[in-house]
Amino acid sequence: MQQVHAKKFLGQHFLTDLTVARKIAETLTAGRTIEIGPGMGVLTQFLLQNKAIQLTAIEIDRESVAYLREWYPELDLVEGDFLKLDLDKLIPKGEFNVIGNYPYNISSQIFFKVLDYKDRIPVCSGMIQKEVAERLASKPGKKAYGILSVLLQAYYDIEYLFTVDEHVFNPPPKVKSAVIRMTRNKRRRLDCDEVLFKTVVKTAFNQRRKQMRNSLRSLLDIGNLTLESERLEWFLTRRPEQLSVEEFVELTKLIENERNQDIL
Fold it and tell me: d(Cα 204, Cα 259) in Å, to the nearest integer?
């Protein structure tokens, strides 16, 4: 069987361990599903065996596309860049899951796109760099806790399932990997301006080692806060990694109210 050559510029590291591939496939049980970057189909084959899953695979590498079309002719395969595709056109109706052995170099971008479709994606699972997986699942107060932790945990419950060693890939990466599963929580909407929430989180973590009084200056007139700003003052003395999702929501509402006061 002809092999596909791993391409560094695409961040390709092909999984060779069938047991690991089967365990990743088992993170999903049923439903319309998009697999990102199937490569040579090591995960794809197990997804296709599950007749409760309706699979569409998206692959950008032409060599992989040719390989998959030869060996998995039954696969619904789309040649293209997941990050550039309009998923509403690809799957016009209903929910769909997302799964994959995600390229390390674009995994964060993939998760930001999942957020864009959060109301349609009930489950997103797969394998990523261990460090990124720890970041996604991290709780407040931990060193790994950051922008992706807050934004994803606002809408998803995140499970760190298991660690994967380097030797089960060809070529082996220089870091360990991990498998995660993100399941949409019951929070349909945040109790604040969601666009401002995203801006607040990103701005706060731009200077994560400092109190937020420093990082949030671009969003607030720090020197002229209203008399009702004691709670806001408390937030400004915190570092961003100390705040839960709920506290970031509260902070966003306080900033919104403060800015409205300034307009008046």
Answer: 17
Same domain, 18 and 42: yes
Whole-angstrom distance, CA of residue 86 vs CA of residue 64: 22
**Rounded to two decimals, what is the model's pTM?**
0.90
Is there a contact between 41 and 68 (Cβ–Cβ < 8 Å)?
yes
- Provide the pairing of β-strand 97-101 with 31-36: parallel
What are the tokens at 100? 């994959």
Residues of the chain with pLDDT under 70: 1-2, 5-7, 9-12, 222-228, 262-264
Return the pLDDT at 14: 77
Q: In what order do the strands lie in the sheet with 31-36?
A: 76-79, 53-59, 31-36, 97-101, 123-129, 177-184, 156-164
CA–CA gap between residue 177 and residue 20 (Å, rounded)? 11
Nearest CA among 114, 117, 82 for reference residue 11 = 82
Specify whether the CB–CB gap between 181 and 37 falls below 8 A. Answer: no
pLDDT, tens digit, for every residue of 69-90? 999 999 999 999 999 999 999 9
Domain count, the chain: 2
Rounded Cα gap, residues 20 and 40, in angstroms: 15
Q: In whole angstroms, what is the distance from residue 132 CA to residue 144 CA?
A: 8
> Does one domain contain both 104 and 143?
yes
The residue from 124, 149, 184 where one domain ends is 184
* 203-220 confidence digits (pLDDT tens): 999 988 889 999 998 888
Question: Which helix or strand (DSSP H or E) is residue 98 part of?
Answer: strand 97-101
Nearest to 213 by CA among 238, 196, 183: 238
* DSSP assignment string, 75-86: SEEEES-GGGS-
